[in-house]
Amino acid sequence: MRTGISTACLYPLELERSFQTLLSLDFRLFEVFLNTFSEFTPDYLRQLRNVADAYGAEIKSVHPFTSGYEGFLLFSEYERRFEDSLEFYKQYFDAANCLGASIVVLHGQRDYANAGISEETYFERYATLYALGQCYGVTVAQENVNKFRSESPGFLRRMRAYLGDTCAFVIDLKQAVRAGQDPFAVCEAMGERIVHVHINDNAPGYDCLLPGRGTVDFQRFREMLLGFHYQGDLMIEVYRKNFSALSELQEARDVVQQLV
After folding, report:
1. What pLDDT does 241 receive?
2. Contact assessment for residue 183 and residue 157, using Cβ atoms and an 8 Å cutoff
């Protein structure tokens, strides 16, 4: 395991400025949050990759800005829109290839209480997207997200049982807490299919804090991951409002580094 950070920590600072700022803090492993269409044009991506290469940095994962619309694009009753969206998501896979990233993060279906598709259809749609990503050498990984279908450990467990080796997961501790779920139950549900971790902390009354600022039992979390033979990294992901000084990100890195 290695320690990394998401550019989302500095949102809404523009991506290239966020990336440069985090590089200046000596981070070298990244999740890149693409925030708009112009940020996955070939010229922009090449410039970002050139900066990464100049610093000896690695971009591990890509987070689509369309994550909030995936229910509409990929998991609605309208089959043709799903097929068209598969073509659209190829742009994310191309972007991942350009940046050297191996993971694309998926949120999935929001407001699922009135979903027009069954769980089985959701799983099959995901499997199609997963297979398409594999053609590009990219793993599409389902994240647990508050207010999305994936907030439920039961759903994640059924997804893993249905798809077996043809699925992958991102666990985000803060998203579990926001959904009123036990992060360890979410981890257990994902099991050996976890390929990526968004690490953060929490405490009573605070669902998202920098690692080391809350009460999460990180040693227990680490042992659980190792029990699932986890081979991925620990990516710090919080919101800009969760810290005051940039030096706090470096302090959080020191905390996470003790787990790797």
Report:
1. 97
2. no
Q: Which residues pair with 67 in a beta bridge?
A: none
Nearest partner of 148 among 206, 34, 68, judged by Cα: 68
Domain tally, the chain: 1
Question: Are 142 and 159 spatial neighbours (Cβ–Cβ below 8 Å)?
Answer: yes
> Using CA atoms, how far apart are residues 227 and 223, in angstroms rounded to an integer?
6
Residue 182 sits in a domain whose CATH number is: 3.20.20.150
For the entire predicted model, the pTM comes to: 0.96
pLDDT digits (tens, 9 = 90+) for 5-64: 999 999 999 999 999 999 999 999 999 999 999 999 999 999 999 999 999 999 999 999
Look up residue 180 and give its DSSP letter. T
Distance separating alpha carbons of residues 243 and 258, to the nearest angstrom: 21
For residues 104 and 152, what is the distance between their CA atoms, to the nearest angstrom? 21
C-alpha dihedral sign at 87, 93, 94, 95:
positive
Mean pLDDT estimate for the chain:
97
Residue with tokens 């959080």: 252
Q: What is the DSSP letter of 163?
A: H
- Domain limits for position 152: 3-257
| Token output for 26 | 């000596």
